[in-house]
């Protein structure tokens, strides 16, 4: 009986601490500042790639809004594509870039995308890479 009470108290404490942490660190919708981001291009043609040789492309952007741009996450459409992006806020008027790499393991034409989740007007931006991997190579 005492063990059940101890467990109940422990679970209650953990839940209370979790609620306290959530309520102190979460942002309300009114606190999120929406800004504008402009990409130089959202579609990048890699052309013809040698099979087995990865290709890296960059998508430069500028924060043209009035508040810092925060990129929360970038999700690639498949495991053959890796992305890297600024983890720190990008101030108004400043620039940055998102780097997308394609592993080129499989021959044939490809079109892949990366969805950039941020505090832009739409809440996300979509970037695309395309090209063709040669039949030869590895």
Protein model, in words:
The chain has 138 residues and is an alpha+beta fold. It has one domain: Immunoglobulins (Immunoglobulin-like). Helix content is 17%, strand content 42%. The chain has one helix and eight strands. It has one helix at 2-25; strands spanning 37-39, 43-49, 55-63, 71-76, 81-84, 95-102, 108-118, 124-133. A four-stranded antiparallel beta sheet has the order 1-3-6-5, with no helix packed on it. A four-stranded mixed beta sheet has the order 2-8-7-4, with no helix packed on it. It is globular, with a radius of gyration of 22 Å. The N and C termini lie far apart (66 Å).
List the helices and strands and how they pair.
Layout: H1 2-25, E1 37-39, E2 43-49, E3 55-63, E4 71-76, E5 81-84, E6 95-102, E7 108-118, E8 124-133
Parallel strand pairs: 2-8
Antiparallel strand pairs: 1-3, 3-6, 4-7, 5-6, 7-8
Mean pLDDT: 84
What class, by secondary structure content? alpha+beta
Question: What is the terminal-to-terminal distance?
Answer: 66 Å
Strand count:
8
Count of discrete alpha- or pi-helical segments spanning 4 or more residues: 1
Shape: globular
Task: Name the features.
about 140 residues, alpha+beta, Immunoglobulin-like, four-stranded antiparallel β-sheet, four-stranded mixed β-sheet, 8 strands, globular
Short précis:
With about 140 residues, this protein is α+β, with helices and mostly antiparallel strands. It has one domain (about 30-135): Immunoglobulin-like, CATH 2.60.40.10.
